[in-house]
Design goal:
Aminotransferase_I/II_large; 13% strand; Aspartate Aminotransferase, domain 1; alpha/beta; transferase; 475 residues; four-stranded antiparallel beta sheet; pyridoxal phosphate; Aspartate Aminotransferase, domain 2; DNA-binding transcription factor activity; Arc Repressor Mutant, subunit A
Length: 475
């Protein structure tokens, strides 16, 4: 009703001093409640479009001065080409949006990577911690931009014991996930035109953040010992930032060798460069203890360490963290306050209580054992049912990666699979442009962490059928 009357004023169908019907009559005429009409009239009155005259009724106000401007707005058609945005906005607009599941239409996504085993999540223990955090009146007050103290303390202790990360509580910042952590770090450390070193295959969300900044991406090849790095190469000497996943390269799962770790640290010290260590799922290493973090080897304060709870807890928790060198804390603290002012205190407090109670460590131990078993099941099943797929060895994580023995289009296979209820991903979709322009790796990324044995059988059978159909089509 509000929009209808306002449009009639703009178009000239309702003119100054035209009388409007009473709210009672209009509500009966159009078949809506009188309260709705009253609300519309009150909005129009507060904005100066109508006026009430005692004993006479409600009339259109004199809005002649507004009509020329409003008329221009109404006839202007905005498009992507004439939309006025910043240079950064234009770069973001040019980036191809990543594929996301449509959460408004829930459906089974078999073998989806990074999906935890929610059927075995300790809901009661988590709910008890959430309830306790809601009863804590201190969480209803404004919190430090760096995050709730309890959670930061628990993260500090956990990382020291499990990853060898050395830090003070004041150097831990809570974020909405590792992606926000990386975005903040890049915004503060990278200029437009700067060269940033990346693994040749990895998480494409980083590429979007770099593109929005106008930074230049320089890719480094990967082998079984992780990223290939020569600190004396010109491309390394020209860069001042390196982003990598040393514990388990994403998505291949290779661990960076100690020799290369030391070479990377030496490069950072010589060039005063920054290293951003994305430790996305090192909690799930199956063969003994995982190798210590790169941050734990850093004696010069050049490593920024990022982690997330989205994989170890559940995707919707949207909590992560970043461990900063002491010299960067004041800058990041100030920027975080400007950007979002802090995250939900209750959610942070609940996570802190969950860790403090020991429930988080118990959950990780159970999931580590479960995921190891599920990986074995899936790998054996794929070897038996789809022999044309070759497993790329990995000793942990939440997904397995398989390369093609034959020349097949992994994008086409995954597109068809996704339409039929499989959440699998194409290996080539993680590939970045390479220095030598060699062909992209092709293959399939299958998640096993959140899949039961029955779901694995169903998913692998469907994948085999789709691959057979694609093979026949390409003959």
């Amino acid at each position: 009703m509000y929009d209808h009357i306002k449009e009639a004023i703009f178009s000239g169908r309702l003119k100054t001093n035209d009388k409007l019907p009473s709210t009672r009559y209009l509500s009966k005429l159009v078949g809506i409640s009188r309260n709705s009409v009253l609300t519309a009239y009150e909005l129009l009155f507060s904005e100066g479009f109508i006026e009430s005259r005692k004993g006479a009724g409600t009339f259109i106000a004199d809005v002649a001065d507004l009509k020329p401007l409003l008329g221009k707005v109404a006839t202007t058609v905005f498009t992507q080409e004439n939309m006025r945005i910043s240079d950064s906005g234009k770069r973001v607009n040019a980036i191809e949006a990543p594929t996301r599941l449509d959460v408004t239409k829930p459906r089974e996504q078999l073998l989806l990577p990074a999906q935890p085993a929610m059927d075995l999540f300790p809901y009661k223990e988590w709910q008890a911690c959430v309830t306790k955090s809601l009863r804590d009146v201190s969480t209803y007050s404004e919190q430090p931009a760096m995050g709730v103290g309890l959670l930061r303390e628990q993260i500090k202790e956990f990382l020291l014991l499990t990853r060898g990360v050395r830090c003070d509580v004041g150097e831990v910042m809570i974020t909405s996930g590792s992606q926000q952590a990386l975005s903040i770090a890049l915004s503060l450390l990278v200029n437009s035109g700067d060269s940033v070193l990346l693994e040749e295959i990895g998480f494409k969300g980083i590429d979007g953040a770099l593109s929005s900044l106008g930074a230049l991406q320089t890719t480094l090849p990967i082998d079984e010992q992780g990223v290939c790095f020569n600190k004396d190469d010109d491309i390394c000497q020209q860069a001042k930032t390196l982003i990598l996943t040393p514990s388990r390269s994403f998505p291949l799962g290779h661990t960076l060798s100690l020799q290369r770790r030391l070479a990377i640290l030496e490069w950072a010290y010589e060039t005063q460069g920054w290293i951003i260590e994305d430790d996305y799922d090192s909690e799930f290493i199956f063969s003994g203890h995982s190798i210590a973090s790169l941050q734990g080897l850093d004696s010069g304060g050049r490593v920024i360490y990022a982690g997330t709870f989205s994989r170890t807890m559940f995707p919707g928790i949207r909590l992560g963290y970043i461990v900063l060198p002491a010299i960067l804390v004041p800058l990041f603290n100030k920027y975080k306050r400007f950007v979002d002012g802090g995250l939900s205190a209750q959610q942070q407090a609940a996570m802190g209580l969950f860790m403090q109670s020991g429930a988080y460590s118990r959950h990780l131990r159970r999931m580590r054992k479960l995921y190891k078993s599920r990986k074995t099941t899936l790998d054996n099943l794929v070897e038996k049912e789809i022999p044309s797929l070759s497993l790329i060895p990995s000793d942990g994580g939440m997904h397995s990666v398989y390369s093609f023995q034959e020349n097949q289009n992994d994008i086409a296979i995954c597109r068809k699979a996704n339409q039929q209820g499989l959440g699998i991903r194409a290996l080539s979709s993680y590939q970045r442009p390479q220095q030598d322009n060699k062909n992209s790796r092709t293959g399939i990324v299958l998640g096993y962490a959140g899949a039961t044995e029955e779901q694995m059988h169903k998913g692998v059978a469907l994948l085999r059928q789709i691959m057979d159909e694609e093979s026949i089509k390409n003959c």
